[in-house]
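Quick one: structure for this chain?
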Amino acid sequence: MTDQKPFAGKLALVTGASRGIGAATAEVLASAGAHVVLVARTASALEAVEDRIHDAGGSATIAPLDLTDADSVAKLAAAIGERWTALDLLVLNAAMLGSLTPVEHIDAKEYGRVLTTNVLANQALIAAFDPMLRRAERAEVVGLTSSVGREPRAFWGAYGSSKAALEALLIAYADETAHSGRVRVHVVDPGATRTRMRQLAFPGEEPDSVKAPEVVAAAIMERLLGDAPTGERVRIDA
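Got it. Here's what it folds into:
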């Protein structure tokens, strides 16, 4: 580890790494020396992120898969465990917005997909990689949340409830691992950010009126390098 490459020799896994906050975070972790495993559904988009990392002198591996498939998560953990001993950084960024609609109009099948993507898949990732996280000298888990998880808003019931559940899981995991002093959990609300999900939620909004994903990635990096306590929830404003 060096001051210029604080994560040299470290292994990171970032979900939703094909674009937006996930891609920006993967790139900043790679620039800090980590080897980054890029996870998302679309191989071509992951390859573009991987190319940018390699062009900048970093190191990355793509892992295209559907996180809602529990078998795929288990296979990913097994494959990574065969190559590396420990996982130092786990960034849980992948999420599904779903339809913004009154609670009584929520489609059960779509709601199931939202909960599976935003909650169950993240629990499966934590469960699958927990042994590798505990073998790290110091592991960092970052979970991306939303203000509507803590402050419910009309029409955001499906997405908001999924993020509330995710926060509960992350903070519980932080409490459960705190005694070891080797796993630190960060619950990060990125705030208004220029992402595809933001565009879907606010189609009339001028994109340049909100911050770029790189701002969030830089704030996450600053937090990882600092002495923030485990289980803390933080909001990143411009």
